[in-house]
Design a protein that fits this description.
A five-stranded parallel beta sheet has the order 2-1-3-4-5, with helices on both faces. The chain is an alpha/beta fold. Helix 2 (33-41) packs parallel to helix 3 (61-71). It is globular. The protein is 40% helix and 21% strand.
Length: 116
């Protein structure tokens, strides 16, 4: 299984990469929505998108998730410590990971998202 991990905080991205790898995923990383979208446009295929909501640049995590959802049936998990006016559920994304979270919660949500 392949995963695309999009997180601008380097230490959190490293921890998430390790956790996803331990779950059996081959992980590709991006530090912004723009970088991730470029990877997708260049043909990257994946089974799971795990993206932060708030990131620098013009493509936030919800915008990225919408773009991916329009062209892929990959499982999508949106995560954030603060979403402000961008509510993932209201935007059609039911798998939301609130920061901070435990590795157990991450694993539980990944399993659920992959099964849906």
């Amino acid at each position: 299984m392949d995963a695309l991990l999009v997180e601008d905080e380097k230490l959190l991205r490293e921890m998430l990469h390790s956790s996803l790898s331990d779950m059996g995923f081959d992980v590709e990383e991006a530090d912004s929505g723009e970088a991730a979208w470029e990877m997708v446009q260049n043909g990257l295929r994946f089974d799971l998108l795990l993206t932060d909501v708030r990131m620098p640049g013009t493509i936030d995590g919800i915008d990225l998730a919408k773009r991916v959802k329009s062209i892929s049936d990959a499982a999508i998990i949106v995560m954030s410590g603060f979403v402000g006016s961008r509510n993932p559920a209201a935007e059609g994304f039911n798998h939301f990971l609130a920061k901070p979270f435990t590795e157990g919660r991450l694993s539980q949500l990944v399993k659920k998202a992959m099964a849906d």
